[in-house]
């Protein structure tokens, strides 16, 4: 079965595409897109891999679900299309970037610029039905994206994993912490951030300090 995913990722992920669960998942997603409005658009489902080649990978950020409102999701976790109002979690991410690095709050919520620098913006579930949060969970996407995390851990070294919130922190068991740099904090959602679990985590400066220490170019956040 052919899945359109960036060439750099094919070697380590191709075995997943042949497994029964993934074939069932593809059939489910095709039917959902034919019978309901779903996000992101079909060509952007694997955008996280398209914009961030495996050989350029430096940082992994793990989200849960794509945004389920019109014109928001673009296949990168926490990211929205240009000109789209910033969702609450993204606002808090940008506030922390601004405070941590003493830079201006970004105008565009499109995080393609991060992805192109080696940041894999991976949602655990890559599709969603419009206006129905979590509607494509437990259909096989999590099995696939867990395998992505596991393969990155196995195949690469010195990757920064940013685990934000309880859901992402559960993925730590998939990561070899002896060979990778893992940072954990609360989720950037208002519920968590307003209770003191997000702001001041300095994940962006800490990531860049680490990248410099291993002679890698820091991320322009």
Provide keyphrases for this structure.
221 residues, alpha/beta, 4-stranded parallel sheet, two-stranded antiparallel ribbon, 9 helices, 38% helix, globular
Q: Can you walk through the features of this model?
A:
By secondary structure, this protein is α/β, with parallel strands linked by helices. Helix content is 38%, strand content 11%. The chain contains nine helices and six strands, in the order ααβαβααββαβαβαα. The chain has a four-stranded parallel beta sheet. A two-stranded antiparallel ribbon has the order 1-4. The chain starts with 6 loop residues before the first helix and ends in an 8-residue tail after the last helix. The mean pLDDT is 96.
List the helices and strands and how they pair.
Layout: H1 7-17, H2 20-35, E1 38-39, H3 47-51, E2 59-63, H4 88-101, H5 112-115, E3 119-123, E4 128-129, H6 141-155, E5 160-164, H7 165-169, E6 181-185, H8 190-193, H9 203-213
- Count every beta strand, where a strand is a DSSP E run of 2 or more residues: 6
Mean pLDDT value:
96
Order of helices and strands: HHEHEHHEEHEHEHH
Tell me the helix content. 25-40%
Please, how many helices? 9
Unreliable stretches covering 5 or more consecutive residues: none
Shape: globular
For the biggest β-sheet, the strand order reads 3-2-5-6
Major pleated sheet: 4 strands, parallel
Proportion of residues in extended strands? 5-15%
Give the class from helix and strand content and strand pairing. alpha/beta
Provide the gyration radius in Å.
Answer: 17 Å
Through-space gap between termini: 37 Å
């Amino acid at each position: 079965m052919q899945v359109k995913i960036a060439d750099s990722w094919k070697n380590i992920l191709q075995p997943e595409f042949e497994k029964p669960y993934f074939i069932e998942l593809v059939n489910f997603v095709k039917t959902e897109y034919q019978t309901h409005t779903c996000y992101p658009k079909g060509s952007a489902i694997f955008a996280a891999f398209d914009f961030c080649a495996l050989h350029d990978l430096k940082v992994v950020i793990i989200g849960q679900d794509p945004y389920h409102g019109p014109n928001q999701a673009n296949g990168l976790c926490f990211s929205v299309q240009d000109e789209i109002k910033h969702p609450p979690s993204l606002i808090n991410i940008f506030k922390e970037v601004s405070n941590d690095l003493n830079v201006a709050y970004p105008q565009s919520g499109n995080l393609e610029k991060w992805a192109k620098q080696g940041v894999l913006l991976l949602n655990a579930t890559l599709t969603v039905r419009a206006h129905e949060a979590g509607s494509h969970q437990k259909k096989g996407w999590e099995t696939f994206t867990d395998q992505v995390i596991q393969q990155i851990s196995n195949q690469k070294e010195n990757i920064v994993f940013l685990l934000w919130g309880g859901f992402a922190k559960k993925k730590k068991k998939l990561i070899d912490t002896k060979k990778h740099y893992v940072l954990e904090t609360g989720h950037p959602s208002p519920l968590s951030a307003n209770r003191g679990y997000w702001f001041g985590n300095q994940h962006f400066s800490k990531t860049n300090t680490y990248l410099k220490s291993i002679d890698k170019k820091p991320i322009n956040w």
